[in-house]
User: What shape does this take?
Amino acid sequence: MELLETEGLTKDFGGLRAVDHVDLVVRRGEIHGVIGPNGAGKTTLFNLITGYLRPTYGAIHFKERRIDGLPTHRIVTLGIARTFQIVRPFTELSVLENVLVAWGHRYYRKTGPFRPYANARRRAREILESVGLADRADIPAGTLPIGLQRRLEIARAMALEPELMLLDEPAAGLTEEEIGGLKELVGRIVATGVTVVLVEHRMSFVMDICEVITVLDHGRVIAEGAPEEVAHDPAVIEAYLGTGSVNAAG
Ligand SMILES: Nc1ncnc2c1ncn2[C@@H]1O[C@H](COP(=O)(O)OP(=O)(O)OP(=O)(O)O)[C@@H](O)[C@H]1O
Ligand SMILES: [Mg+2]
Assistant: This one.
């Protein structure tokens, strides 16, 4: 069994089927893209995998263990961390403290709550260094521009030391230059042995960085494969044209 496998994963919101019998297979070490028009079910898929939502039907296996139905904190402990499409830092806390909040959880898990705080601060600074936020460590997180808030989101996910990282539109609102930096950062994260699933509308970014892409439309998988295959798939082109989505060109 691969690192993450969903089987017939389905989520209904009343009469709306947001995720419809999705079989997603994510292999260790890959960067796996999930794309699709607005409302296709991408964020709902992440919410199911991370335990924010319970599936209506289907199963989720992570490291050969069934995780659907587990609470989010258990899923984090097993090794899945995520970022949010709408960034949500603790705006009043400093950038460093935002990472420490994530680490508090990690510390509790490993050693109980009494391990020296100084170690956590040192590790948090290392993480900020690696995402390029070291010089902003002590300012309130709410004052960061959007590009750096997205980096802070990734730093907080890194602090959880996941095996699988789910990134929900990490390139949204970023300049081309910032996207270059993001590619490099995601590459470094993967080089440390982390597997990444990436939801994204910025096509050039997805096409460049992902080895495999799964395309969702109305909750269903309509295509899957290497970036160049998927980009030329008639069903994919149709799905994007059908929405008139300007994002598709991005
Ligand atoms: N909590 C909820 N309650 C009811 N409907 C929801 C809920 N969350 C999502 N939906 C609906 O489910 C569908 C899928 O939404 P989702 O947010 O997963 O799409 P998405 O692919 O992430 O879209 P986007 O690209 O715009 O972020 C949409 O029709 C949305 O309105
Ligand atoms: Mg979304």
In short: DSSP finds nine helices and eleven strands in the chain.
